[in-house]
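lol forgot to send this yesterday, sorry. struct tokens for the thing we talked abt
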């Protein structure tokens, strides 16, 4: 029986029961198993198809059986990176991360990559999660504070090769966002974060002055659709009740294409 043949990875992303239930019910309704290919590594540990295998196990427990196709998989890059069989866990983590991009189950989200690399004990990912939890920041907002946005850094994050060591600067910005969130509830929204970080990076931006002004008049900050619109809102709030000759034009320093 396939349950006895296939094994789970020592470290894997969480399997949500609601997803397994949907797959189980879909198979039951259709009367057949449409996605038969289950991909494994050379240790017969499942790389792609864990949710489907779990759903099939439920059917097998009830006496219903379906045909599956098992394909062994080995990524060429992993073969060159790891030759030592004793570090199997590291291999399987990367194997699953690479393969997940074409997964039939469901494409991995950033939280899945973060979870699996945290389970493997990688320091940067553990610190990343610590910061997310401490300041209740979405993944996208934290990555913006770190200045690591874009496809290049996304790929590094997914492949487990993400590195970062400027946590003190990020924590300082996160603390300011936390204080601001008590005045403006959308302060951790990624569009707002992408805007406010431009101001925080300006040495002549007085955050304490800005916080005082928006605290006194909380209508100064409101939701906007784009980063550029948010920057305009933030600048107007900063210059609230300021004499014309003393108003600061921050926008001229910003590159909105970046």
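and heres what i got for the seq, position by position
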């Amino acid at each position: 029986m396939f349950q006895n043949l296939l094994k789970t990875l020592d470290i894997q992303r969480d399997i949500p029961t609601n997803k397994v239930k949907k797959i189980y019910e879909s198979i039951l309704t259709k009367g057949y198993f449409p996605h038969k290919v289950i991909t494994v590594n050379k240790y017969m540990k499942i790389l792609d198809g864990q949710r489907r295998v779990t759903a099939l196990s439920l059917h097998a427990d009830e006496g219903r059986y379906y045909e599956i196709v098992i394909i062994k998989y080995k990524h060429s890059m992993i073969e060159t990176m790891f030759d030592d069989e004793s570090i199997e866990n590291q291999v399987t983590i990367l194997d699953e991360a690479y393969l997940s991009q074409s997964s039939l189950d469901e494409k991995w989200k950033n939280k899945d990559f973060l979870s699996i690399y945290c389970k493997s004990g990688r320091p940067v990912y553990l610190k990343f999660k610590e910061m997310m939890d401490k300041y209740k920041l979405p993944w996208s907002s934290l990555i913006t504070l770190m200045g690591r946005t874009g496809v290049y850094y996304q790929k590094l994050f997914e492949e487990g090769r993400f590195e970062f060591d400027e946590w003190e600067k990020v924590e300082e910005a996160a603390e300011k966002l936390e204080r601001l969130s008590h005045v403006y509830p959308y302060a951790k929204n990624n569009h707002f974060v992408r805007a406010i970080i431009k101001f925080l990076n300006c040495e002549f931006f007085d955050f304490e002055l800005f916080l005082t002004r928006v605290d006194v008049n909380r209508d100064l900050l409101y939701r906007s659709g784009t980063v550029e619109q948010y920057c305009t809102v933030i600048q107007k709030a900063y210059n609230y009740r300021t004499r014309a000759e003393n108003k600061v034009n921050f926008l001229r320093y910003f590159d909105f294409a970046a």
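Strands lie at 37-40, 46-48, 69-72. anyway ping me if u want another try
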